[in-house]
Design goal:
It is a single chain. The protein is of the alpha/beta class and 440 residues long. It has a domain of 42 residues. Helices cover 35% and strands 23% of the residues. It is built from 13 helices and 18 strands. Strands 1, 2, 8, 9, 10, 11, 17 and 18 form an eight-stranded mixed sheet that branches. A four-stranded mixed sheet has the order 5-6-4-13. Helix 2 packs parallel to helix 7 and helix 2 runs parallel beside helix 11. The chain binds flavin-adenine dinucleotide. Flavin-adenine dinucleotide binds next to helix 2, strand 3, strand 12, strand 16 and helix 11.
């Protein structure tokens, strides 16, 4: 049941585990995008740095190897809140940096001939009812243009499409291949990557890994939803996002679906969905809504929530009725990290040498690149543009069981909100009440 499209297609290189004490200039905890891009950018700025990455399983094991492959310019918190809390200049810096980061990822991949199926076809949010259309119409800005029903269905032939909004700022890619290519590249420039190497303790200038002391001037925690609870004290919780993918689609179905530019796409529901046509012509679709576990437990069972996977399958067939006869060959999922105020973070203390980055909610493909790049510049002593995630105080989640009840009630409310919108044809009142409560 738990079979990831990306993981099952990519080849994987086994690496050494930590078997003895050692020391490095920089020790990075976590072999996902955050950890890998941190090493990449540090090496760009200071090629002589001795860097090691410690990954408890294998490179790309976490969300970086399992995601929807949207390299978007999205940020977890709303534009209005960003402007209110950080000012227009910081907001503009963020928009510009995220948009540039999408291209930079593409350029790095191209110049190194990485096979990551990168296609910058933009992103479409489409409406299938009047309420969704009203809601997305209010989101038009200089990055998003409105598409009429005909224009939207010209791009993507979804049943009952009523219109959409389109941004050119998104690329589809194969995330697991990106982790593998990046790791191999890092090794070629001298970064040491250890797998099956769990970091047990982080202290000033040292880590404890597989029982061995690793000395370091700087440590970077890049462990996102897999972070040990003792390191985050209720500052973030894991939420599961689940995905499915079809068999390779026959050319007649691909022609009917259209989307030859491989724009990523999602329906404008309150409960988040996301999809892409992959580089090898499958539909890969994901969504949230799997139940949050009491005390923030990570559980592989949550990755195979049958109810969620079959809901995704139904949604795919609702969008594209021609998929009725197609096999859904892959089903998988993974956790994303949700901070109390949906806030991403880059915290670095130059005195202790300890850094931590993450809190991307479900937007970490491009954002992890930008956060890691910014961290490398800060460590290098450079002046960086003001960005909203730098040295942020992160709030704490409510104690259990209040947290469990509230988070799962929030999920239920978004499902009901979508139902309400289908019935009334107006943007949901329930969603209007829930949105401020979840501090998005
Ligand atoms: C199903 C799904 C779909 C998604 N879709 C998208 C999308 O389309 N677009 C988008 O922008 N974002 C998406 N996301 C989110 C995105 O994948 C993440 O935000 C991003 O990959 C986070 O990267 P990371 O390196 O910070 O964390 P991860 O990739 O989770 O890596 C953390 C790593 O740390 C390791 N680790 C943890 N603790 C230790 C320890 N003590 N010692 C050693 N290693 C440790 C873990 O094993 C893991 O490999 C999705 C996520 C999921 C789960």
């Amino acid at each position: 049941m738990n079979r990831s499209l990306w993981r099952n297609q990519g080849s994987i290189t086994a690496r050494d585990c930590v078997k003895a004490a050692n020391s490095f200039d920089v020790a990075i905890i976590g072999g996902g995008f955050s950890g890998l891009w941190s090493a990449y950018h540090l090496k760009q700025l200071q090629p002589s740095l001795k860097i090691a990455i410690f990954e408890q399983k294998y490179v790309g094991y976490g969300a970086s190897g399992r995601n929807g492959g949207w390299a978007s310019a999205e940020y977890p918190t709303s534009n209005s809140r960003l402007i209110k809390e950080h000012g227009v200049q910081t907001y503009n810096n963020l928009r510009k940096s995220l948009i540039e980061s999408i291209d930079e990822i593409g350029q790095i991949a191209k110049s190194n001939a990485w096979q990551i199926e990168y296609a910058k076809g933009g992103a479409l949010v489409f409406a299938t009812n009047k309420a969704q259309l009203t809601r997305i119409s209010s989101e038009i800005d200089d990055e998003h243009k409105f598409l009429t029903k005909d224009q939207a269905s010209e791009l993507l032939n979804v049943a009952n499409i009523k219109g959409g909004i389109y941004t050119p700022h998104c690329a589809a890619l194969n995330p697991f291949n990106l982790t593998q290519s990046l790791a191999k590249y890092l090794e070629s420039i001298g970064v040491k990557i250890f797998e099956e190497s769990k970091v047990e303790e982080i202290s000033d200038k040292a880590l404890l890994v597989n029982g061995h002391r690793i000395g370091c001037q700087i440590s970077i925690r890049a462990t996102e939803a897999f972070t040990a609870r003792k390191w985050i004290a209720n500052q973030q919780i894991p939420i599961y996002s689940l995905m499915i993918a079809t068999e390779r689609l026959p050319s007649e179905i691909l022609t009917q679906i259209r989307n030859s530019q491989r724009a990523t796409f999602q329906e404008a529901c309150n409960l988040i969905t996301y999809a892409q046509i992959t580089g090898d012509n499958r539909l890969a679709i994901g969504g949230r809504g799997s139940r949050y576990k009491l005390f923030s437990h990570l559980s592989e069972r949550s990755e195979t929530d049958v109810r969620m996977h079959s809901a995704l399958e139904k949604r795919a067939v609702k969008w594209f009725p021609q998929l009725q006869s197609v096999n859904f060959e892959y089903r998988w999922g993974g956790p994303i990290a949700l901070t109390r105020r949906w806030q991403s973070y880059l915290n670095y203390n130059p005195i202790t040498g300890q850094a931590a980055i993450g809190g991307y909610v479900g937007d970490g493909v491009t954002l992890s690149y930008l956060v890691a790049k910014t961290l490398a510049q800060i460590i290098d002593g450079q002046k960086t543009p003001d960005l909203p995630f730098v040295n942020q105080r992160i709030g704490r989640w409510e104690p259990e069981p209040i947290r469990y009840l509230a988070v799962n009630a929030g999920f239920k409310a978004t499902v009901v909100a979508d139902f309400e919108e289908r019935i009334t044809g107006r943007p949901s009142l329930i969603a209007a009440v829930v949105d401020p409560l979840i501090n998005r």
